[in-house]
Amino acid sequence: MAVDGGPELVQLLTPEGERVEHPNYALDPTPDQVRGWYRDLVLVRRFDTEATALQRQGELGLWASLLGQEATQIGSGRALAPGDFVFPTFREHGVGWCRDIDPLQVLGLFRGTTNGGWNPLEHNMALYTIVIGDQVPHAVGYAMGLTFDGASDACVVYFGDGATSQGDVNEGFIWGSVFNAPVVFFCTNNQWAISEPSERQTRIPLYRRAAGFGFPGIRVDGNDIFAVYAVTQAALAAAREGQGPTLIESFTYRMGAHTTSDDPTRYRSGAELEIWKHRDPIERVKSYLARNGHADSRWFAAVEAEGDELAERLRTGCRALEAPAATAMFDNIYATPHPRITEQREQLVDYLASFVTPAGSR
Amino acid sequence: MAVLTMSKALNLGLRRAMERDDRVLLMGQDIGRLGGVFRVTDSLQKDFGDSRVIDTPLAESSILGAAIGLAMRGFRPVCEIQFDGFVFPAFDQITAQLAKHRARSSGATPMPIVVRIPYGGGIGAVEHHSESPEAYFAHTPGLRVVTPGDPASAFVMIQQAIASADPVIFLEPKRRYWDKAEVADSSELASSPELFSAQVVRVGTDLTLATYGPMVRTCLQAADAAAAEGKSLEVIDLRSVSPLDIETLATSVERTGRLVVVHEAQVSFGVGAEIAARITQQCFYHLLAPVLRVGGYDVPYPPSRIESHYLPDLDRVLDSVDSSLAY
Ligand SMILES: Cc1ncc(C[n+]2csc(CCOP(=O)(O)OP(=O)(O)O)c2C)c(N)n1
Ligand SMILES: [Mg+2]
After folding, report:
1. Residue B313, CA distances (Å) to A46, A339, B179 in order
2. Is 3.40.50.970 the CATH classification of the domain at A31-320?
3. What number is the ipTM of this complex?
4. Residues B237 and B161 in one domain
């Protein structure tokens, strides 16, 4: 049972909300900045809770919850500079939040109204990738392109502990390394890949794999937004300065089921969950803000109220996400007309028109 | 006799195969404690141990690669790929290695490997969870490709596939996992239909519907609806996509004179195209209409809210039946 991050774990804010220093990561955020983080954390958790509820009500086909991983996502997401580019898995709803992707755009994929959801170039964030690990080489190629263009931006690619076993992920490490690409390999180690514990993927702590590929690896407390922010910022800075990749292992826990289709009681113990409950990523920021007099109960209540508004907007907005027209399946497959597509689109239009009553009511 | 879902029938079939031969191993993601995301391997790790029911690292290419090595040691690996869309990382091992192994070693290293893949759409899933990749595998010499259409066939076919000396791509129609039917739990496989044979699942005289996997039930329903309008449709469950049981098909088409092939996969360059070519050649003088195909459009699998327009359904099958009869 992997619950202890070990002595190498970078931590700047304890679960009790106390600041601790780390020799390599000096960080002195303004109260405003920390309040901003807290707001982000609360709102993405609310977004997540609401999406789970919408799935239960049949409004979404599936939902992959980020519960427990809020600090991992907001900490790294807020460390990005505007020009940086992100390659996510399918669980990076909080990172999308930081890239100004409206939660409703994220819900479309899970509702089944789109296979995409946003314009990657508008948000500097690629679309979600469902096939585990496929996005890692994409990020390396993008980063190589940044170098070829002489750009001063960097790129972050997210993947899970399970994904570290995939060939494409390891090949991506090699490419990133030999081309010295400005890419941050961000591994969210939430301890589980569906029912398989991280020990099924690795015999050594994941961050140590970096050494074999020839770049630094860091293990950070993934429930500590201060530490995740600092570590990601440093890795991005190193990438921009031409030092190549860094592997960040964000040590956290998947508090919920893998997705709404999953039943974790079949394979993991509640004891582990109890331990991680005490490390909640939001509670510790709240304690920090309160203890230092940076926020009072009125302010916290205002954030909650904002959460309620968001939830309400998601409930109505999600139900309003309409299925596209049937013929949308023929759109954008090719840049220029393709005879088979043209012909089949016409067939479908004629076929649908042949029903006196709407299709399917025969 | 017991009434079982297809998922449970496969589970029981795997159990019988493991009891019969202790060289049979199961490998895949989440197949142990979880019992697989569709519960097909439920309880098997508990009963056979974790060296016979192996939760693998998240790496499909190595599930197949390692299975090849195990087969060289005389094991009979049954690999589970969690969803159709995730077989492609293993595509190289399957097509470049597994399929060619026997021929390259002049038969010295047979590859009795089964690759189980839940496939097809209709369950409202997100992308990469609804693909029908059978044509890729059927196009690859050295592989056999089968797919059951009902629980009773599933129970027998999985055991026959495991007993096969050749690699078998075993496609499980995931939207039919919860269909129930009577299954005879007899260990007597010898009296069951041969694995690579098609079965006439409904006798008819006016037209032949050839189909497999998830579309078997759809075609049977279409035949019912057509019967109400006075049309008699014969339904053939191909069960094996490679090899194709062309004789059973041809015998039927020689009687009915008309053939409509139905599958979920995109029609172009698909199984229906192969059947149309073979039947046209073999039954040319018996055909009263060209062989028609009903399948998915030539587009990436669409978002689930419009998948019902992509998937062949009763209406689209009957529409083609009418076209064929009108020739
Ligand atoms: C290539 C591939 N194989 C299998 C799956 C099915 N699957 C979806 S998520 C998952 C586990 C992923 O674990 P991890 O990388 O740790 O990410 P997490 O789900 O914990 O965020 C699996 C096996 C997939 N999506 N892609
Ligand atoms: Mg994980």
Report:
1. 40, 24, 17
2. yes
3. 0.96
4. no
